[in-house]
Amino acid sequence: MKFAIYNVLFALAFPFMLPGFLLRMLRRGGYAARMGDRFALYPRSVAEALRADQPGSRVWVHAVSVGEVQVAGQLMREWRRAEPGVRFLFSTTSSTGWKMAEREVAEGDILIYNPLDFPNFVKSALLTVRPRAVVLTESEIWPVFIRTARRMGVPLFLINARVSDRSAPRYAKARWFFKDVFGCFARIFAQSEMDRDRLLAAGAPESRVTVTGSFKFDVARRNEAKERELREWAGEGRILLGGSTWPGEDEVMLRIAAQLREELGAAAPRLVIAPRHFEKADAVEANVRKAGFRCVRRSRGEKASGAADEVLLADTTGELMGLYGIADAVFVGKSLCEHGSQNMIEPCLCGKPTAVGPNTENFRPVMSDLMEGGGIVQVADEADLARTVLGWFRDGDGGLGERARAAVERRRGVVPACVSAIREVLS
């Protein structure tokens, strides 16, 4: 009865969700061409390839955000090392996730948009794919999809599982509903003890939940070729990078850049801003000009000239890790003017002194590990960030970058352990 109610509520809510889908298509592009995937209506080439498969020949992997896609990509690479013949069907729900996923799939893999979580669409998709297993990432909990796969005898796994501060009380209150959902998973690999406790409070079977640590410690990988390319774009000299900034944070970085120019003169670093959503780049550029700087946009093929009044805008997808590699100091966004934070592991792996704001709830286990190793600075506000960054460029980081790199390296190895555990269950 409870899942019948969920289906009715979903059907009633969908007409109100549709304008959001259409707006996303217009804003980000690339979504409309495969809108049929959301209803399990696939292009002929995809449908024919899936029909030609033997039942149970593909592993279905689902991820949405850029970070989740990178997690899923690392799992697939490790699985291929252990089992060279394995093939994947990769699903996502956003055009940004799709662009990232295109870099993770290999020859023979298939990329689709995930079906809407409604019985007819989910059942049709699963009957078309006939997967060997389904692997979901982090917090991708789709009740109808999960329950339908389980009823069809498909083993389900949840990797890098986390439960956010916002979701935890909702899951606990709706334990009567989510107990049956989490009970469908063969194994759940949680990022931390806190995530494990929250999953158990939501009804997950204790015997199936294992704390592994975060996949993201394994996901981060330096790309020296990309770093050389970006260094040529950014020019010589020191760089202060605002990575994955959200609205409001680019303005903070611009004010700090102006302060550094006043304090350090010609020794001040050049500011590079990499907004989390590149479609907001026009607004960021307007803020750059309003602050009295000239804007050099990566997406337009513009290059730095070395002028002191330049701010570089990295408004392209998939280059953030390379930017961390060439930076001299980093602020990681969605942590000062927004809540949740973005991934701070990548700049730490690169050995860069890294600061985050007070709002890092989406990365509590990671922050705990990095803070324990003395590898990151958490600032209280804009003034604190300005003082911290000024100190780094004036006096050095006191070994912070090296401690950050060591803290990340100590926690790698999660992905191979999880792949081994999943394959053991499937065997």
What can be said about this structure in brief?
With 427 residues, the chain is an alpha/beta fold. Helix content is 48%, strand content 15%. The chain is built from 19 helices and 14 strands.
Structure explained in plain terms:
The chain is α/β, with parallel strands linked by helices and 427 residues long. The protein has two domains: 19-214 and 412-426, 3-Deoxy-D-manno-octulosonic-acid transferase, N-terminal domain (Rossmann fold, 3-Layer(aba) Sandwich), CATH 3.40.50; 224-409, Rossmann fold (3-Layer(aba) Sandwich), CATH 3.40.50. The chain is built from 19 helices and 14 strands. It has helices at residues 2-28, 44-52, 66-82, 95-104, 119-129, 143-151, 167-173, 175-182, 193-201, 216-219, 224-234, 249-264, 281-290, 320-326, 345-349, 364-372, 382-395, 400-409, 414-426; strands spanning 58-62, 87-92, 110-113, 133-137, 156-161, 187-190, 209-211, 239-245, 270-275, 294-297, 310-313, 329-332, 354-356, 377-378. A seven-stranded parallel beta sheet has the order 3-2-1-4-5-6-7, sandwiched between helices. Strands 10-11-9-8-12-13-14 form a seven-stranded parallel beta sheet, with helices on both faces. Helix 11 packs across helix 14 (320-326) and helix 12 (249-264) crosses helix 17. The longest helix has 27 residues, at 2-28. It is globular. The two termini are 34 Å apart. The model has no long low-confidence stretch (mean pLDDT 92).
